[in-house]
Each structure stands twice: as C-alpha cells, then as structure tokens.
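Posting for a labmate who doesn't have an account.
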Amino acid sequence: MFTGIVATTGRITHLQPLEQGLRLTVEAPGLDLADVAIGDSIAHGGVCLTVIEKDAPRYKIDVSRETLDCTVGLDAPGEVNLEKAMRLADRVGGHLVTGHVDGVGEIVKFEKIGESHELVIRAPKPLAKYIARKGSITINGVSLTTNRVEGAEFSINLIPHTVEVTTLKHCRAGGRVNLEVDLIARYCERLLNPEK
C-alpha cells in the first residue's frame, strides 16, 4: 500500500528486454534505499513494482507485458515519480493507494492559472463512475483531489509544490497518465453489485 505522496522523482536509465516484459534500471539518488530489501515494493508512476536488485542509488525492477500493456511511462527512459511502500505506523498524507493502475487517462488541458495549474483529464468511460467531485484519485502515483467532474472528464488544481516535485510538470494536452481510482469506490460498487 502507498499514500500517493511522492517521495522523489527518479529516472529510468536502462531497459533490458525480457521474454515477457522489461527489466528496468532506476536511478534514485533522492530516495533513501537503506531500508529497502530485495522483494520490497516501490511505486513507479503509480505502478507497484518489486525490487529485484539493489546497488544504491540504483536498483532494478521487472515489468511484465501485462503491466506494460495497461500503463504508461515504463517503456522508455525518463523521469518517474517514486514512493516506497508505507508502513502501518506511517501518516497517510494522501489516501490509500494500491499501486494497481485502473486505466490510462488522456490529458485534455494543462494550464497555468495564477500560481497553480489546472489539469483536465479524460478517463476511460468504465472508470468515470468511480470519480467524484472532491474525491481522491491517483495520477502517475500522486494523490490528488478532483474539483470538477463532467462525464468522463475531471479537473484538478495543482499547487506549485506538486508541479515542482513530481513529473506532473511534464503534462501536455494529448499526453497520457496512469489513473488509480479511489479504493473505497471500487469496494462500494462490489458490495452493491455482488453479481458483477
């Protein structure tokens, strides 16, 4: 489990093809790896992945073909949001995040408004029902609050700090982002519709 509070950004520096996926090398000089063991989870752009090798400040992770097919940002070198798995004694500064991406959204608008930025995203239609005004959503691993929801489109206000310390500063209209809807919304639907 994660909180959606990004610890730092790292960089995917090397991709090694595997039979069914990729092995990534991640450089993470801003992430304290002292308490990270082989087998531990780290969220990469909102995707929970397992550390298989570590030589601080670098480590390696394997990404399956299934994960590559339903996420963005893990198939090329570049900057990535990082968060170590939470401990039960940690503060939950964002919201409960599993690191299991529900779908990929399309950026409709990313525009500076005063000191902040407005980010408008179009979610895949099947996910729209889980997104509520003033609700929680995870975008590329960042816990955020929705301001407006209209159909499958929703908007978020990004404060300068969030833009500065995450990869969301690279958002552009037409770009794609990893989305994880609120865990509680998914369980509520299952409880209300047990046959589905």
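Reply:
Got it, the structure tokens are right above this. The helical segments are 65-69, 125-128, 160-165, 183-192.
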